[in-house]
Amino acid sequence: MNRSTLALALAGSLATALAGAAFAAPLSPEKMAGNEKCYGVALKGQNDCAAGAGTTCAGTSTMDYQGNAWKAVPKGTCVTMKGGMHMGSLTPIKS
Amino acid sequence: MDFATGQHAFAQALLHADAPLPLGLTGAGGAVDAARFAVYRNNVHVGLTRALAQRFGVTERLVGAEFFAGMARAYAQDHKPSSPLIIDYGDDFPDFIAGFEPAQTLPYLPDVARLEAAWTRAYHAADAAPLAFSRLAAFTPEALATLTLKPHPSATLLRSPYPAGAIWAAHQGTELADIEAWQPETVLVVRPEMAVNVHVLPASDGLFAALLFAGGTLGAAAEAALTEEPTFDFGAALVGLLTLSAFAGIHQGDVP
Q1: Which of residues B151 and A36 earns the better pLDDT score?
Q2: Beta bridge partners of B252
Q3: Where is the Putative DNA-binding domain (chain B) (predicted)?
Q4: Of the partner residues A1, A18, A75, the one whose CB lies closest to the CB of residue B67
């Protein structure tokens, strides 16, 4: 495909998509709700709980800062997560 | 010793376990008390590791609290805050995890952490009006292909060979949800208004979106996407990304 053919194809493709888009501006999250299946799967998150640490001056009596001689294996949900064992069969995507 | 020098020495002693105690710091009886100063050191490090645990909650759940605490301690040992804002702490924690030997059994862990870091960045990013569809209508076909788009200030695009978005989503409730498909995901994190949105993009549009985020022109990104996947739909992909508010600005290059 040469350059001007590509440009025309892109413009045509965009015109078609814009004509199909029933909205004139990007959608707010509230409006998105009904459109989740149109494009991109919206994943539900817990609002604000991961906003980051605030300031705390709470002290601690545990001596967490002791030594680096620490050996452990991950044993959280990675062990129980369904599907998590299939990771070895994946071929990384090319970037 | 002037105040600045003394202050610097105090900070160094606080941050490094093997640094000498600050000169002149003694108890009421005049004796140097290493155990008391260790309380200060400990509080600084516990504060940092707790900040990481708050920002990377899914990562912590994945590996368990004990493992996470050890990993966070190892990170805090060599990575002190570079910003006075504790919300920024851990921006390069995902990269650290990628090189952290005990975590190598979970190759998807760095990408899940990257998603969490992106979430916090999006939450605190500057507000900006998303790019409107109407702005695209003004260009000729030739000019359209030369456009580059400026990502929304809150937006991060994560290309993962793992289902980073699905893993993150599975951990949003108290109960662990199933991962329906273990497959590569391109995840867009963006905050167009007040709420941070996390979207998994259609697989065929991942490369296109990544090239646009990297500053590629619409023409070059579309060409690469079409080469990779001949059924790639340029219009649908671009309108889709605009619908999600991925971009905030537009720049026209030289028309050949």
Answers
A1: B151
A2: B147
A3: 7-97
A4: A75
Q: How far apart are CA B109 and CA A61, in angstroms?
A: 30
Kindly report the nearest CA distance between residue B8 and chain A, in angstroms: 21
Distance (Å, whole) CA A45 – CA A56: 25
Cβ count within 10 A of residue B18: 5
The token pair that represents B150 in the structure block: 């400026």
Cβ separation B63–A65 shorter than 8 A = no
Chain A residues with CB under 8 Å of B86 CB are: 52-55
Sequence ranges of the domains in chain B: 1-106, 126-256
Instruction: Give pLDDT, residue A87.
Output: 44
* Average per-residue pLDDT for chain A: 64
In angstroms, what separates the C-alpha of B50 from chain A's closest C-alpha?
A: 8
User: Would the pLDDT of A69 be above 50?
Assistant: no
A43 Cα to chain B: minimum distance (Å): 5
Which residue on chain B is closest to A13 by alpha carbon?
Answer: B235
Torsion over CA: B130, B231, B157, A5 (sign): negative
Helix (H, G, I), strand (E, B) or coil at B83: coil
Under-50 pLDDT residues of chain B: none
Cα–Cα distance for residue pair B156/B111, rounded to 1 Å: 12
pLDDT surpassing 50 at residue A26: yes
Residue A53's pLDDT band, with cuts at 50, 70 and 90, is: low
Residues of chain A neighbouring B107 (CB-CB closer than 8 A): 87
Residues from chain B that touch A34, judged by Cβ atoms under 8 A, are none
Q: What is the pLDDT of residue B216?
A: 97
pLDDT at res. B169? 94
